[in-house]
Amino acid sequence: MREVVSYGLEQESAAAALAQLLRARGVGLTKDEGPAGEHLDRDLTNARDQLRTALLDRMTLLGSGRGEDRDLKPDLERIGNQGLHLLHRLVRETPALPAEDPGQAPSDVLGMPHQSPVVTLWREAARSLMIGTHDLARNPHPVWPATPTRPRSASSAAHWYLLHDAAVSIEAFVVLDDRLEAAGLLANHQHGAQAWNLRARRALASTVAREASWAGTDYSPDLAHAATPGGPAAGAVRVTNFDSLGVGENRLATLLTPGHRGRDLDFDPRRELGIGMTKTLLARQAELNFNLAEVCRSQPQISTLAESFHRRATQLLNVRGHLTSLVDVVEHIPPPGLAYQFTELVRAGQTLPQWGTMPAHLADSVNAAHHNAARQLAKAVRRNSSGPRSIYARSLDSGQLAPISTSASSHGPLVQACQTLINAPSRAEGRWANPVMRQALKEQLDRSPTRVRGPLRRLDRGPGDSLERP
């Protein structure tokens, strides 16, 4: 098993690096003469180019980059719907390497720490954004709808959440890029026509970020992580703290989702959940949700989530109560990796009291992950106990087995209990995402004025001093 780094952790890391670079006010390099100074400048611009590429890749993943942004004029009444393509255009119009210069490979630029703290920060921001995009693209199940046609619908809230992260990162990039350009570090890059000046570009990015924050109320993307090669067992997630708890629950949900349930040739009833393991999963997941409800009650910042965890635990036990008279029709072999992941979550429930307080910025995503796992478990019970492919049977008082009746009187309560759990809201009303470092980056941007005029100069001082306007 492995420790998992998720999209949310990578985005937090990128935000922390960008915020530190913004606080430096200039580009952060001291005055160096000769080859050493040129080498340092080149390392910085190489890292900057990788950051630009990472942002373009992120916007392409989110659905832009297919020409929709060409000659697009901002419309304040439609700024939210235009945001994806406007952000892509903001990055695309920044200085780029000449066409004949392919630049360096990411592994050559981002692989090792640098002697300069400033270059290291640029590299950290680029690397974290790249890995975060990879986590989103290779997550075992889709993070958001491929084409969100109704931006404010619940189904695309995750897409808007990701767009907010991208908008804030892009605003930080255009501010930092302007500083590099003013210091003459982008003289060898191609400077195409830009539709807007820096003030307008910042206004566009911040407006899109604000619009996205209103609709981006699904925080589950923070738990996205790239699938591990080698099958489900190899991808089991070790759960040792609140950071990995949500990732582990989402992994459980993935393992509970059938890959080809509707295709006759791929359906094997022995690979479905047996009734014994189903009952155990329901009981242990209910216990874990009860424990998390107690954790939330003890912390005023996240106390509103206690009701969600408690309600979910009660619903899980309700489903389990309807399974008491059901037995397996055939012997079952659990899906690969499910037993490993389940064991990790059981151990997490036992050690949860030793973890201390839950970080407030993780509470919503942990709640969403448990909701995801509970829904998939309820769906598994519903499909395995109903229809012509039912793999459970009812045990009669005589000791004989009988098919599960589909009449409302005998089978209805189980289906209704499953449906109630599937349709339950995933989070408490009024909860908003508050990732610590991303919030700090947004606040730092609000305090960072747009450069008015005049070039930046190097200060001939010690390491860590910044470039400032004369």
- Which parts are unreliable, with pLDDT below 50 for 5 consecutive residues or more? 30-36, 147-155, 230-234, 260-267, 405-410, 428-434, 455-470
Helix run count: 14
Query: Span from first to last CA?
Result: 55 Å
The neighbouring-strand order within the major sheet is 1-2-3
Report Rg: 26 Å
- Shape assignment: elongated
Query: Sheet with the most strands?
Result: 3 strands, antiparallel
Q: What is the H-and-E element order? A: HHHHHHHHHHEHHEEHH
Please give the structural blueprint.
Blueprint: H1 7-23, H2 34-62, H3 79-92, H4 106-110, H5 117-137, H6 157-182, H7 198-215, H8 242-256, H9 275-297, H10 306-321, E1 326-328, H11 338-351, H12 360-384, E2 392-395, E3 401-403, H13 408-423, H14 436-446
Antiparallel strand pairs: 1-2, 2-3
Helix pairs in contact: 1-5, 1-6, 1-14, 2-3, 2-5, 2-6, 3-6, 3-7, 6-7, 6-14, 8-11, 8-12, 9-10, 9-11, 9-12, 10-12, 10-13, 12-13
Q: Could you describe the 3D structure shown?
A:
The chain is mostly helical. The chain is 53% helix and 2% strand. A 3-stranded antiparallel beta sheet has the order 1-2-3, with no helix packed on it. The longest helix has 29 residues, at 34-62. The chain starts with 6 loop residues before the first helix and ends in a 24-residue tail after the last helix. The model is unreliable at 30-36, 147-155, 230-234, 260-267, 405-410, 428-434 and 455-470 (pLDDT under 50).
